[in-house]
Predict the structure.
Amino acid sequence: MQHKNLELIHSFFNAYNKRDMEALKNILDPEITWNIPGEHPLSGLKIGVEEVLDYFKEMEYYQFHAANLVIGVNDSFVVDCHQNWTDFNGERFEVMSCLLWKIREGKIVEVYNFPGDQKVMNDFFSANRR
C-alpha cells in the first residue's frame, strides 16, 4: 500500500497533466504558498489557491508536462524529482526539477521548487514571455 502523501502527489500530477483546475483546487490548501525561484516573469511567491491556479493557467500557455522520476516521503513532506518538458513553438525544451511539498491534513500547504538549471529556466521564460 502506498503512503497517503504519495497518493496525494500522484493525484496532483494526474490533475496537472490533464489541466484539471477543479481537481487541483481540491488537492491544494486554500492558503497554500508556492515558491518559484528565479529572475523571470513567472518567478516569485504565489500565496493562496487562486494565485497558484493562476500560475498553473499561465503555465498552460507553455504546454509543460511533468513525469516523476523519484519520490521520497514521510508524514509531513514529499520530495520529488521530475522531468519537465514542452514542445513550445515546435522546439523541445526539457529540464529537471525537484519539489519539496509540505502536506497537512491531506492537503498540499507549501511547495518549494528547485529547478535543475535556474539559468536555463530564466532564459526560457524571459525569451518566451507573452
About this structure: The chain is about 35% helix and 40% strand. The radius of gyration is 14 Å. The chain has a mean pLDDT of 93. Residues 102 and 113 are 12 Å apart (CA to CA).
